[in-house]
Structures are given as structure tokens and as C-alpha cells.
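Could you show me some protein's one-letter sequence and the numbers that encode its backbone in two labelled lines?

___
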Amino acid sequence: MAGEESLIADPPAEDTNWYPDEHAELVTKQGWTGSADVLRDYNELQKSASGKVKMPTPESSADEVSAFYDKIGRPVNAEGYELARPELPEGMTYDENFEKAMCGVAYEAGIPKAAMQAIVKAYNEFQVEQYNTVTAELTKTFDEVQNTLKADWKDKYDANLEVARRACKELGGDDFVALLESNKLGNNPVFIKTFHNIGLKILNDTLIQGTQGGGDKKDEWKPQYPDSPELYATDTSPDGEKARLWFTQKGHIYG
């Protein structure tokens, strides 16, 4: 009505005194219009901070450090790394004891599962590559050794190689021979010639000669059929092996 005062209240004046003057620049930058805005942003900041990982310090307890490791992805135990086994080339074996030991070290060091898997994968690939490289080099060396020995021994190559092989077996046993063959550790002409010379001594001293007629007199041992080497080609008895070695020393080549 005319002449009557309006009952509608005017909006409250903006409170410009809710922050000290030294924070005016920050308030303007953040776009805060009142203390409610500050509380709202502080609440959001707290929520965000609660999900962040707190780096341990030298003063952190063992439990705090362990909790940090768990937070960044360490498995629940050393067995939880679930490492993939590589496809190994023939002759290469996987060291399970090494894997188990390294998982224990990784767990204590707090290495995350994904990081450990990546490290081990790269390590295994490197080991396989190294093994293949070394094997290729050994194979190449073996071919060169064969050519060298064949040039030196000519038609006695097979017989002399058999003497060297028998010397390895007599001195080291079947496991030693298998190791040399699988790893090509004997691919060296000096090695082979050395065992050939040892073999000749072994044949003369222990396999070829025997005591006959009593007493200490030693006569040269001969097979029962010294003119028939083919009779002993497949004889696996002790006398059969001695006979083949005897014929081999005489220059006979078994196929």
C-alpha cells in the first residue's frame, strides 16, 4: 500500500571482514565468497589426502613401513609374486631355489608384485639369450675342434676320441661324461688330447694289462679272439669293454 513500508527485507550485505587482510590474495585466487566455501574445500582436501600413500620416514615404525609396502602393491607373502616360468631351450634348467630366495628378498624389500614380475621376466629373458649365445659359440667351437683333431689324427680320429671318452668315464664316471656332452665343456683340442694321453695310460695300466700266472708279473692282456674285433662290437660285459678298448688302441674303428 502506498505510504506503507515494504515488508520485503533487503539481502544481507556481503561480509568482507571474515578473513584477515593478509589472506586477501588467497581468497580471491580460490574464489571463496565466505567461510562456508573454505570449509567445503577443506573437507574435499581431507578426503583426497586420506587416499594418498604416506611415504615412510626414518622415524616410521616397522608396522608403518610394512603398511606402506602393502599399499603400493606388495603381495601378502613371498609366494604371492606368482612369477611366470620362461620357456627354456634344451639343456637349460630353471633354478627354483634361486627364485624362492629372490622372492623372499623382494618381499622384505617391499617390492610390488607387478615390479617384481617385470624384473624377473627381463632377467629370465636375458639368461635364456645368454644361454643360447654361449651354446651357439660352443657348437661352433666343437665343429672347429673336430676339424682340427681330424686334421691331426686323420684316420685314427674316431679311435683316439674313444680313448679320450673312456678316460673321462674311468676318471669321472658317467655323470662326468654326461656333463661334458650336455654342456660341451670338453670342446677343446688340448682337453681332448690330454684325456687321450691319459686314456692311453689308463688302458695300459688298468684295462689292458692284467696279472697272469700268479705273482706280480704283468703281461699284456689280450681278448680271447684278438683277430676278431667285430665279435666285441656290442659286448657290454667288462671283458667286452676291455676288448673294444684293446682293439681301439690297436687302431680299429668301431662304427
Observations:
- Residues 88 and 206 are 42 Å apart (CA to CA).
- Residues 207-218 have pLDDT under 50 and may be disordered.
- Residues 155-249 form one domain.
- The chain is about 55% helix and 0% strand.
